[in-house]
Specification:
The complex is a heterodimer of chains A (954) and B (220). Chain A is α+β, with helices and mostly antiparallel strands. Chain A contains 26 helices and 47 strands. In chain B, 30% of the residues lie in helices and 34% in strands. Classes of the chains: A alpha+beta (954), B alpha+beta (220). Chains A and B meet through strand 8, strand 36 and helix 23 of A and strand 1 and helix 6 of B. Bound molecules: FE2/S2 (inorganic) cluster (2 copies). The site of one FE2/S2 (inorganic) cluster has 12 residues of chain A, from loops.
Chain lengths: 954, 220
């Protein structure tokens, strides 16, 4: 065990042990541990294998900022062990190694494969022979990627969205973030603070100020701040910040934002810099202070600034022996160096690490003078703490539109002017020293609250001005200039990694520059540097420096890569959230289910496809009676003194002269004369019309009507009754008798003729009954309030039982309508079809006095011959071509089948097809090619069944 | 006339609802102990089908809407009258009146009469086309936050706030009907879908179904 004595402020509860497994073996940790801290305490040093070379990797940052500790938890890959809280019973497994993490056969790539896998090798190799592509793909798919998903049914995972509006969103819960949250909340703002740590407090928690962190967090909570921990902000989308927390994607929309994302401790580049045992100073301190874990038994600390010196002191205090501190600065100017000396810790100044060696973990470190690489010394240790400076975590701020500028004194890219409503605070903004960081946070919070609309007054403004002056005064103090880490050059026997996630070495960057990819963006694309799971957190600065070295320009001229979301990796399932499948169902749907209907999607409706036997359903309609649910039909009530005029202008036929109680078919056209939708119009009274549309067209037609009505400024109102009214069609020779049993209305042919409509009570329900049908038999559409839809259906079914009435679904309806040659708009027509080409020219009344939508285009269409015509066809044999099959002439496709079915009643297969106009006449022979098979068919004009409409009008 | 039925009646039946006939509607009055439902609505979150509420759509010129509503209305705010009807302006020329079914006949007649006196106005009963679900309780916002991006914070949307938007990806209108009680109005054809989604979203919050008895007890 490598647990230390209890540390002040540690997060673990040593009285609550937890058991879990790693690669099947039982491990123990404590409540409050992360997976990584428990495994490390248990002696594990190798946590993963690297992406390309399969080199062993250990804990580096312990803060979720790298990719060294990715594991699978309970079958879910891509989990960072160093931030994932330990739970009892969790099954943790390694990724990317076979047969085991300790012995991975793919390590051979590291040992012997280097020369064959330079950067961009996949652009140059595995191109020929082409026939081996599937094999290459198979191989690459097996090798690439980090982890495998379990089978879909084994990874049921509840994910959802949570929308949160706020006045101020603070991103980052360190000293600056917490101060900002408190200051904003004190001014009355509704504040949310998100932090990716298990607890808010940031650095304070592991740098000895945990009490301060916890008191600030509790003050924030006391002011009503909602603190979301373990929550990663993924990006900035015009003020919307998605934040992942477990399986929930919080979509936070705030009026103002404070970015307090701090800095990221940077590693150093030297040969063997990726060995387990090399740890950033932050990482080592976290393990020590938060989890009471000894990060090593003998440590060397390599630093370019004070951060490393502070870490050395803290580790020493915690009981970690420090063998040597190497500081690249020739003369550390701080008192920290004196403290180290007082504790008997040797500090080698003007020196650096030139290499680390060991079998699968650090065993010794070679250090040398920076100036001349002389004075080499080998130090034995199992922990190498590195601190190569810090990089402000600017990604989110950059996404919010802030430009970064290189600041030579600190050697950092720092945010310039932020957009209105966005504030930067703390170390992110280049501010150093706790006092100044806290003040900068408070200022940012107050400004954000004001930007979000908190009341402002003179006193507040003068307070802010005073605090700003104070902050400026603090920042005016001379700070120690930063040292850019010196690159020692990779030793011949070791790889020096710039990017650990993607296994990109310094040599690889040199190679890419030599190949002409000499800017950071090009080198990035070629080598994939900064494109790994950490999104450049640990390598952007090193990559910039490497490109600068190779191109001879300085870092500011190299610039940064573009910051793109997501800033933190996120599972696709979390982005997708809960699956929604909005479906419309008629008020009779429960009855359809009870009747055993097979349900299908029809537009956004769920409708019965059949009730088990469509052929039987067709026969019932022909021979007795059938009933179909038509509730999905679009239904519009158009009322007003100018309602008739509106319809006259929208339809190509005349509707204002429609008599009350009569019904007329109508086709809606676009301005270009193309068919948009069809349906019927019924005259309710002098000023009111009841318009039906196709099921899928209801919404668009309502918009179309409203749009034109507003444009023409007509006195009419439109009410969409699609969901208000249920509708059923009773069809078949027995339909009249069945209806008559349910109503007092006289249903005789003389009293209620074809295309008549009546308002009547049916089964006691107020209804509109329309004598019309789509299926070619005597039929009635009954429209009634949806709340009574099922009662209406049941009453009809009961009244028709003696006539063997059957429910019929969409499949039967399609056969029946095809027999009549009725067109389904959208299936038999497309965006190019007009009434003339679709053989419906009869509906266009060009002699109508009023102008109407599409008139000009239809006049042209009437004058000119159209290339294609929609016709019916009868197959010469029994085959039923698929919808979409080609109509061919001399082997060339010239048209297509839009509908085809076998008609039991007619005894052959029939359909509708677009054919060259020269072939439109009845009796013309057409050739159809369907999935390689050739068929012949004969053109039929008019209805296939009951062409004189005697049954329908009967 | 047969009973009017909620578009989610079979879901209510499946959830064990008891029904009573009220003003021509088959209304789910309770799912178990009313006290438990009241408790959830007071301390957690409860979901209650209110599709039996009557909805009347009024269309008229902007200047006439106030006349028909008996006073000026402000977009984004609904007004409750002494009869328990909510007057909900959807646009400057379109108004939805949400009313207890017992009031609907008189209300409809009154509106028709008032409309008759104007140049042109239309009054249409769209009750059967609108489903309504009340999400009520201190955690009502938490439940709705999983389904809608509308800002329902008390400061932004006080009681009476009327917010058209999308709930569970269907067009809806949310009325802050009572303290921490949101009436979600949407198309009846989508009721089964919305109800199922709400029930699922409520699961992690231990939401319960509440019948009309519990809501009446809250009102009392
Ligand atoms: S060690 Fe876990 S992410 Fe770096
Ligand atoms: S180190 Fe992570 S992307 Fe380079």
């Amino acid at each position: 065990m490598t647990r230390l004595e209890p540390q002040p402020g540690e997060r673990i509860d040593r009285r609550s042990p937890l058991r879990f497994s790693f690669d099947g073996e039982r491990v123990e940790g404590f409540e409050g541990d992360t997976i990584a801290s428990a495994l490390f305490a248990g002696g594990r040093r190798v946590f993963s294998r690297s992406f390309k070379y399969h080199r062993p990797r250990g804990l580096l940052c312990c803060s979720g900022a790298c990719a060294n500790c990715l594991v699978a938890v309970d079958g879910r890959p891509g989990v960072r062990a160093c931030t994932e809280p330990l739970r009892s019973g969790m099954a943790v497994e390694h990724l990317n190694a076979w047969p085991s993490l300790e012995r991975d056969v793919m390590r051979a790539v590291d040992k012997v494969g280097g020369p064959f896998t330079p950067p961009g090798f996949y652009y140059k190799t595995m191109i020929r022979p082409r026939r081996l592509w599937p094999l290459f793909e198979w191989g690459l798919r097996r090798i690439a990627g980090l982890g495998k998903l379990t089978r879909r049914d084994e990874r049921e995972w509840r994910t959802s969205y949570r929308r949160r509006h706020a006045d101020v969103l603070v991103i980052g819960g360190g000293l600056a973030g917490l101060s900002a949250a408190v200051a904003a909340a004190e001014l009355g703002a509704d504040v949310v603070l998100v932090d990716d740590g298990a607890e808010a407090g940031g650095r304070l928690l592991h740098e000895g100020s945990h009490e301060r962190a916890r008191s600030l967090a509790s003050a924030a909570r006391g002011h009503g701040v909602e603190i979301l921990t373990g929550a990663s902000a993924l990006g900035y989308y015009d003020g919307l910040v998605p934040v992942r927390r477990g399986g929930v994607l919080h979509q936070i929309r705030a009026r103002a934002h404070v970015a307090a994302t701090g800095t990221i401790d940077q590693p150093l580049v030297f040969a063997g810099n990726d060995l387990p045992g090399v740890m950033t100073s932050d990482g080592a301190l976290r393990l020590t202070a938060l989890y009471g874990v000894r990060p090593g038994s003998r440590a060397v600390v390599a630093t370019t600034g004070d951060r490393g010196l502070r870490a050395a002191l803290a580790l020493h205090a915690a009981g970690v022996p420090i063998a040597l501190v190497v500081d690249e600065r020739s003369e550390p100017v701080t008192a920290l160096a004196d403290s180290l000396a007082e504790h008997g810790i040797e500090v080698m100044t003007g020196a650096m690490v030139v290499g680390a060696c060991g079998d699968d973990a650090v065993q010794r470190v070679t250090v040398a003078r920076v100036a001349d690489r002389g004075g080499e010394r080998v130090v034995h240790c199992d922990l190498l703490v590195v601190s190569g400076g810090s990089a402000p975590a600017t990604s989110l701020l950059a996404q919010a539109g802030t430009a970064m500028a290189f600041e030579p004194h600190s050697g950092q890219f720092l945010p310039g002017e932020t957009p209105a409503h966005v504030q930067a605070a703390g170390e992110l903004a280049g501010i150093d020293g706790d006092e100044a960081i806290e003040l900068s946070g408070a200022l940012a919070g107050a400004r954000a609250a004001i930007a979000a609309g908190a009341g402002e007054d003179e006193a507040l403004h003068s307070r802010i001005a005073g605090e700003q002056t104070e902050l400026d005064r603090m920042l005016a103090r001379p700070a120690t200039p930063a040292v850019t880490p010196t690159f020692c050059g990779a030793a011949a026997d070791g790889k020096a990694f710039v990017c650990l996630c993607e296994d990109v070495t310094d040599k690889d960057i040199a190679y890419s520059v030599a190949e002409g990819y000499d800017s950071i963006e090009l080198s990035k694309r070629y080598t994939t540097v900064t494109m790994g799971p950490c999104q450049g957190r640990m390598c952007q600065l090193a990559a910039i420096r490497a490109v600068a070295r190779q191109t001879g320009v300085d870092a500011p001229a190299v610039g940064q890569t573009t910051a793109r979301p997501p800033w933190t990796p996120v599972a696709m399932g979390v982005l997708a959230g809960r699956p929604f499948e909005p479906a419309k169902r008629s008020s009779i749907h429960a009855r359809h289910r009870a009747l055993g209907a097979n349900v299908m999607w029809a537009g956004d409706w769920r409708r019965p496809y059949d009730y088990g036997d469509p052929a039987l359903e067709v026969r019932a309609v022909h021979d007795a009676a059938g009933i179909i649910d038509l509730s999905s039909l679009g239904k519009l009530l158009v009322r007003g003194p100018q309602a008739g005029q509106l319809l006259d202008r929208l339809y190509p036929n005349r509707l204002s002269n429609l008599k009350v109680g009569r019904l007329r078919y109508g086709v809606l056209n676009s301005d270009a004369g193309r068919i948009m939708d069809d349906g019927t119009v019924f005259g309710l009274d002098e000023d009111s019309f009841y318009v039906t549309t196709t099921s899928s067209g209801a919404g668009a037609v309502e918009e179309w009507f409203s749009w034109w009505m507003a444009d023409w400024d007509l006195d009419a109102h439109i009410t969409d009754l699609t969901q208000t009214l249920a509708a059923v069609n009773v069809a078949g020779p027995r339909a009249r008798a069945i209806l008559q049993r349910l109503t007092d209305m006289d249903c005789s042919p003389d009293a209620f003729g074809y295309l008549d409509g009546r308002q009547a009570h049916v089964a006691g329900i107020p209804a509109l009954v329309l004598r019309i049908g789509f299926v070619g038999e005597l039929g009635y559409e009954i429209h009634a309030p949806a709340a009574h839809g099922q009662a209406l259906w049941d009453a009809i079914a009961q009244a028709g039982a003696q006539d063997a009435i059957r429910p019929f679904g969409l499949e039967a309806q399609r056969v029946l309508r095809l027999q009549k040659g009725h067109v389904i708009v959208g299936q038999d027509t497309d965006g190019e079809s007009n009434a003339y080409s679709a053989s419906m020219g009869w509906i266009v009344k060009l002699d109508k006095e009023e102008d109407f939508v599409g008139r000009w285009a239809l006049e042209l269409a009437a004058e000119r011959a159209h290339a294609e015509t929609l016709v019916g066809f009868r197959m010469s044999n029994g085959a039923v071509p698929h919808e979409g099959a080609a109509v061919v002439v001399d082997g060339a496709p010239v048209g297509r089948v839009t509908s085809a079915r076998h008609s039991e009643r007619l005894g052959h297969a029939i359909g509708l097809a677009w054919v060259p106009t020269a072939l439109r006449d009845a009796g013309s022979q057409i050739a159809i090619v369907d999935e390689g098979r050739h068929y012949s068919a004969e053109v039929v004009r008019g209805a296939f069944y009951d062409p004189d409409n005697e049954r329908q009008r009967g | 006339m047969p009973l009017a039925r909620s578009p989610v009646e079979h879901e209510l039946v499946r959830a064990g609802a008891s029904f009573e006939v009220r003003d021509g509607w088959n209304v789910a009055t309770r799912f178990g102990a009313v006290a438990d439902e009241v408790q959830a609505a007071r301390c957690g979150v409860a979901i209650s089908d209110r599709s039996w509420l009557a909805t009347i759509e009024v269309q008229a010129a902007a200047q006439h809407i106030a006349t028909l509503a008996g006073g000026p209305l402000q977009l984004g705010r609904a007004r409750r009258d002494g009869d328990g009807c909510w007057w909900c302006p959807l646009t400057a020329r379109r108004l939805l009146v949400v009313a207890p079914p017992s009031r609907v006949a008189a209300l409809h007649d009154r509106l028709e009469e008032a409309a008759g006196a104007l140049d042109f106005a239309s009054v249409v009963d769209v009750s059967a086309g609108m489903a309504a679900v009340l999400v009520v309780g201190p955690r009502a916002r938490d439940l709705l936050a999983t389904l809608t991006a509308l800002d329902l914070r008390a400061r932004e949307a006080p009681v009476g706030a009327l917010l058209p938007g999308s709930v569970a990806r269907v067009p809806a209108v949310v009325l802050h009907e009572r303290d921490s009680g949101f009436l979600v109005l949407f198309g009846a054809a989508q009721a089964e879908y919305v109800w199922t989604v709400m029930a699922d979203a409520g699961e992690p919050l231990s939401a319960v179904f509440a019948g009309s008895d519990a809501i009446e007890a809250l009102d009392a």
